[in-house]
Design goal:
- By secondary structure, this protein is an alpha+beta fold.
- It folds into 2 domains: about 1-55, no CATH class; about 70-175, Alpha-D-Glucose-1,6-Bisphosphate, Chain A, domain 4, CATH 3.30.530.
- It has helices spanning about 1-20, 40-45, 55, 75-80, 150-175, and strands spanning about 85-90, 95-100, 110-120, 130-135, 145.
- The chain has a 5-stranded antiparallel β-sheet, covered by helices on one side.
- Helix 4 (about 75-80) crosses helix 5 (about 150-175).
- About 10% of the residues are buried.
């Protein structure tokens, strides 16, 4: 019985010491700077680029990881660049955007489909893999699909990277 009592006292002392040592590092929040509404607080945290990831804490940050879609300039710039086309797939966590077949005005029997794979979060020329597919159909609904990743893919990539750089500058100026 004495051993159980001593062990219980030891547990209480240990927990008291452990929990009281945590209180020194806590700082109070400034109610003037923190919105009371939870949705507004979340929006403020996203706008300021704050987030939590255990992967970064333990040093396992890989270039394929994505944080928030709204804070990823490449993602936003890609969606803005392809806004005129209907999307068939936009998977942020998988890092891919695929448009549906698109036919421009005045063009018959020919469609285009674009896929963008994100290889990195960083804004650089090798961060994106863009494929452009053309579909040409005859009157009998016999279609031929060809991969024509060329000048159009380069133009799209330049436009996305330019917009992403502008978004990044805009975010940095907001944080200051």
């Amino acid at each position: 019985m004495q051993k159980i009592l001593n062990f219980s006292i030891l547990k209480v002392l240990f927990l008291t010491f452990f929990l009281s040592s945590c209180a020194d590092g806590l700082k109070g929040g400034d109610a003037r700077k923190t919105p009371a509404n939870m949705t507004e607080r979340q929006r403020q945290n996203i706008d300021e680029g704050r987030g939590f990831s255990l992967g970064k804490t333990f040093g396992t940050n890989r270039s394929g990881e994505f944080d928030f879609a709204s804070s990823n300039e490449l993602w936003r710039a890609s969606l803005d660049t392809l806004e005129f086309m209907p999307l068939s797939l936009a998977n942020y966590s998988g890092g891919i955007i695929v448009t549906d077949w698109y036919t421009g005005q005045g063009i018959e029997n020919e469609s285009v489909k674009i896929s963008i794979r994100f290889l990195s979060n960083e804004i650089r020329s090798d961060a994106l893999s863009i494929k452009v597919f053309y579909k040409k159909c005859s009157m009998q609904d016999n279609c031929e699909i060809t991969d024509k990743t060329s000048a159009l893919a380069n133009d799209i990539e330049k436009k996305i990277l330019t917009k992403a750089v502008l978004y990044e500058k805009e975010n940095k100026s907001k944080k200051k």
